[in-house]
Prior knowledge:
Distance between the termini of chain A: 97 Å
CATH topology of the largest domain in chain A: MetI-like fold
Low-confidence stretches of chain B: 1-5, 299-310
Structural class of chain B: alpha+beta
Bound molecules: adenosine-5'-diphosphate, magnesium ion
Largest interface: A-B, 22 and 26 residues
Number of strands of chain B: 20
CATH class of the largest domain in chain A: Mainly Alpha
Largest sheet of chain A: 7 strands, mixed
Radius of gyration of chain A: 33 Å
Number of strands of chain A: 15
Helix content of chain A: 55-70%
Strand content of chain A: 5-15%
Structural class of chain A: alpha/beta
Shape of chain B: globular
Strand content of chain B: 25-35%
Radius of gyration of chain B: 25 Å
Mean pLDDT of chain B: 88
CATH architecture of the largest domain in chain A: Orthogonal Bundle
Oligomer: heterodimer
Low-confidence stretches of chain A: 739-743
Shape of chain A: globular
Strand order of the largest sheet of chain B: 6-7-8-3-9-10
Amino acid sequence: MIARRWLALFATVALLLCTVTAHAQQRSVTLWHAYRGAEQQALEQVLRAFEREHPGVTITSLAVPFDAYASKLEAAIPRGNGPDLFIDAHERLPSYRARNIIESAAPALGQLARTDTGPDLEPLALEAVTSSDGSERYGVPLALKCLALFVDEELWERAGRPSLETVEGIAAARSALPREAYPLVYYGANAYFHAAFLHAFGGQLFDDRRGTYAFTGAAALQSLEYVQRLLRDRVVPAEVDGASVTPYFRSGRAMTVISGPWFVGELGDARRFRVVPLPRVTSTGRALSPLVTVEVAYLARNAHAPALAAELAAYFASPSAARTRALIGRQVVATPSAWSDPALAADRILAPFRRAARDGKLMPTHGNMRLSWEPANQAIRRALRDPAATRVALEQGQHRYDDASRPLPSRRSPLPLQLVLGVLALGLVFRSVQRARDPAFRYAVKQSMPAYAYVTHAVVIVTLLVVLPLVLGAITSLYAGRDGALEYVGAANYWDIITARGGPLFTSGTFYAVLLVTVVWTLANLALHVSIGVALALLLSRPLLKLRALYRVLLIIPWAVPSYVTALAWKGMFHRQTGAINAMLAALGVEPVSWFAQFSTAFTANVATNTWLGFPFMMVVTIGALAAIPKDLYEAAEVDGATPWQQFRHITLPLLKPTLLPSVSMGAVWTFNQFNVIFLVSGGEPDGATEILVTEAYRWAFTRQAQYGYAAAYAVLIFGVLVLGTRLLERLTTPPHARGGAR
Amino acid sequence: MTVPSRAVATLSLRAIRKVLGSNAILKGIDLEVSAGEFVVLVGPSGCGKSTLLRTIAGLETPDEGAITLGGKDVTRAEPRERDIAMVFQSYALYPHLTVRDNLAFGLRLRGESEATVKARVEEVSQMLGLGALLDRYPRDMSGGQRQRVAMGRAIARRPKLFLFDEPLSNLDAALRNQVRVEIKKLHATLDATMIYVTHDQVEAMTLADQLVVLNGGKVEQKGPPLEVYARPASRFVAGFLGSPSMNFADARVSDDGATAVAEGLRAPIDRQRFSGLERGRAVVVGIRPHDVTVRRGESSAQGYRDGAQPAEISVPVDVVEAMGFEAYAHGQVAGAAFVARVEGRPDELPRRGETLALSVEAANVHLFDPETGRSLAESKS
Ligand SMILES: Nc1ncnc2c1ncn2[C@@H]1O[C@H](COP(=O)(O)OP(=O)(O)O)[C@@H](O)[C@H]1O
Ligand SMILES: [Mg+2]
């Protein structure tokens, strides 16, 4: 009895102590965000204001780099060393909920001023933080981001002040504008931008409720046909990418531009402009409706000071803090009452963006949304390039999405594999024991000890750097999963790859199609590398050539420059509008070529780049090999009656072969896996047609929801193909006298 | 075996000059080679033998002079237009081809039919005993075998002219002797015109119909080998041919003009050959080690008496090299090294410290001008 009383007392004291220390900690709050520049400045100002209003409270704010933001949160919060609250986009909400790292925002939302319909927040923003069943809200919405229309005042006036209310009104400016200027410029080949048109036709990219890809059907078709018309009528310029919109506007060649808030910073004060909401499509009567992303202050689980965190989150959304964020941080804040401030209501940029956001649609939050960008982008690009193929392009998009989001192979028991490995291991152990008992073997091992000592470090390093990654890669290929959550599935990945997942074996994107491209790529490159390398080596080996050393150095430079630098330089040279190659063609009177619009030209661009990178190696090898051919063989041949060509054909070539062959083998492997060039120059364009096996593997691993197992299976297959290929090459090209003998 | 007749050519070089880099290598070479002749170019290393041969082959173009082959001027012709075959010192076999293909190489280049190629390869491999080697690669053969293939390659072509550049220098002594004889036979069988370069005087002496001694880019002397040996036109030729080399000593013509005298030396002069020598003139006396005879039982202390008897040489012996059937005694005469060949059983050989008394016939005494090195003999031509 007494013991129990003591225990109770002890517990009370302990509890008290805990609350005291907890209370002491409560006076400090940690906030994570990924803001920079003006937004960060505004945030800090808001935080200081909060501290002033709450004496004794300190707020630690941490600006975390955007790249690793989510993974840092996901790692830190469950361990209890994460923030009390953090700011991130609403798209992450389902994933954060699934990881169980955020709390209900009810305590914070309850502190906000209320209107008749609910808290003092934009309805769309509130919708963004509401769970799909409508029961719960996670996070306090702070600001909205979307697209709007930037208008060049001067051009607009010159065009006779056409109506900006409708796309047709804008299009009517075509005739009034100079030829090189366009009524409307935007990044047409991108699904984020095209979504605005799609929504105007009643379609959507992704059905968030069902979690399905939705860029199909009539609305998708109509939206694409609509844009095709705009292109044909030269209302919109062709082949505009993200980077070329700004130069259009700055140089006065775009009357209007569809872009986001970031565009303001890129403009400087080159042009007099204003911002208006996106126009309507006359035929449907609906406005182009941008995708809207909402910035949210999330309350973290395992917070040290939950109450204070909720208070701070609510404070962010308060009219005064919202005003600061709007006026200093240039955010389109989600607090309606803040907009009653005259300065804010009259803001010539923020106010139109707010109106644009009201017409907008929330960015889908389903995890598979991320898988639909690549298929949608490719479908749009293809349709805009080739209107006749619009339907096919849409079907292909759906197919690509299905491919990327296909159900994972079912989980298998690893038992059979374990059994096989176990038996093998046992066999190995048994054999070792058997051999170890043989005195002759033991003696031999003892004798070789010093030799083993010499090679140990090499063996260790090779094991760590080569064998281990290889084995781990091969093991990974037996697993499947998305976003790094892997399950053992046996050989299912291989089976999927080899059977093209049940589809036709040779359509674009299948292993076989990509393999074919890879093989053609390798052969084309090798042929060029070797012929150019040998030709230059022959030239440079002429004893009478002046400045030989200088030429050699100059010709080796392409090899010495890091390949990605070269690749990027060449990509720039192949640019349709600004590239040096089209400029040269133009000087010759040839029409500019869209290098990355067709397979043949994109492939040519890749090959040209890689040839530039690859010939110096063959040249250097050949120069060495040429120097090793005794001169008197040429004299003997000359006396025997050989012409210079015959000398090359019958002496030089056959004697170069033994030296060139290993280099060709090596070059084949390098080219087969030449990631940099493909990735940086064509990037797989058009529609992934110039993708080779490594870049395809990369896409599976890094742009299709981290399907590492599938990518690893690709890698193992690449390894296999290369082993077989080099073997074959050796077999085919080794003359009998060179087999098994030094020379 | 019989060999079908072929176009055997004459070769003539006139005033060939060649400068390589900044060095004049050939300084005006004249040479006539008649059809079927075996000419050996001999001379020390670096005297321009290879350069001359390469010029004949067309691998070098002379800076001056003219080359005619079979009556045609080929001075500026490409090698392939000359129809000459050359055997290189390094053999220069094509390492990537079998012996068969090496032999056939030149024939195929000239567009011969495969049947002809086959027949020729067959013929050559029989002639040189290459039958068993036909499918081997050069690296799988010994030096002697490779050398044979190199010759076979030349023969298969049936050229107008054969050139050999020190073809035996990479073989060991025994093999060299054997192949040398074979080449001689081959020349007889083929009845071909051949020019053969060597720095080995044994090859030069044994092979040549005509011997051409080159020195410093010039022809020192040419003629039948035995004649060149017996009547060297210069001190250089005299010293170059014969082994051991001819002994030389500085001497003076005696007052009666019958002998050349130096300390320990009194050599008779053949007045017929060496007419008109001034008394007291400085000369270089040349005597081959093989041309002396030992005067037994006479003491050198007796000195020399003037008169018609054979002159005497007294050599204090430093070293004796016994070769079995003969020996070489080394000593000093008139301040220069002197070697004498001595015959006899081992116990009869001279010993170190002894002084040998030697005599020499006037016919075997050569006299040279100390300044120019030319022979003082009246030239017969
Ligand atoms: N390409 C060259 N440039 C300059 N000098 C050379 C060249 N080739 C050979 N020589 C020189 O010419 C001389 C004669 O060479 P070579 O005909 O090969 O002599 P041999 O064959 O008689 O030994 C040598 O002194 C050699 O150094
Ligand atoms: Mg030589």
